[in-house]
């Protein structure tokens, strides 16, 4: 009996009240045809209602690849658990994703877990274990003594618990069954064997399929094409057909946002390390260039989403990768690519010109095992207690992504971001920085809106080293607080830095060094 069917036939199997899990990382690997078909069935028939959705990573971009925004419909979605949420404004409408609206208006039971937890939790479901146990996240927003990962008032059930074993505290994520799994691959044969030859990442595809089958559920795979059985090398088939119940062919999907297909993400082109493209001069470029000075050859360095992912781009622009220079650097992201150039914006997650790839759960084994010595991460707020927030601020609820696991396990941390936000305007040139318009929102605050990572506590207790890099100042994070270590040429340290901080530095270097003027020259 053929496993091939239409998307409409596949989603017709989903029953009210079930739990649906879906793979996908922003625009990468998103089974958009399946999510869209499920949403259309609900609009046409009013069924199935009250579904729980589990997204290990935010799925889709809510623009051309709608992903989770397809199913962000009140009545269809009762509960959602995700490793992060889409937050970008639609350039055409100026609106945030529909998923954000449901969360802000308390229309669904919304929970947000660190991606390390969502990935490893799938393994516990797959082996029918009692749950995922980890010390990562203690003292942060996911700790039940904070908010337990609850993102709306409707989210009342405690999905994360606190336990003590041999005097050490752990967070416990109990398992629950997954009834339906959506995964995406490149090719399938008649038996359902899946290969990923045109996908730059595989994320949680295998782990999700294993978890759904262990729950007695149904796995539906969206693929680009059908191929004859036994036509591929066994090393190409990453998900065996025994784990796949139905196959839906959706030819010509987007590889990711704005990219139909580009084999540079598959390691199929040799890179000479040179580029003629240049980032526009501005605050973000200054920050990336200063953070790049902290990146060392031969050190495994992991980059997070946001401002920090611009660092490899400016390194490439400034010639650091010429003459095989890229081979001197060991770059990765939380989604499994090794080597090559970490991309920014919607192309983040997969690397261009990668050398190796592992899946999502294995990558978090790598991260949690302490194998990323250095990390560059963005920040949205820093407070007097030494906590960093990137997960929820103002009207935005993006969640932490892989931030917590990366921050907890790296030995050296560089946090990047503008000094203020919401309207900040700067002029960069002639080796100096001029503030034309100050941002309306301060980022160095008395108390963060949400604790994504208790940085100072880990610097003091575990000996982590950390710096904060902005366009106008650089700070070291020491056990007793912030130390102002550099200020930009053209900036007055008192009136344009210290006086704009609700949590001023504990100490200021005297004399106070200037940031290198080359950072402010194109």
From TrEMBL:
GO terms for molecular function: acetate CoA-transferase activity. Keywords: Transferase. It is an enzyme of class 2 (transferase). One of its GO terms (biological process) is ketone body catabolic process. SMART domains: CoA_trans. The keyword Repeat does not apply. Belongs to the 3-oxoacid CoA-transferase family. This is Acetate CoA-transferase YdiF. It comes from Azospirillum palustre.
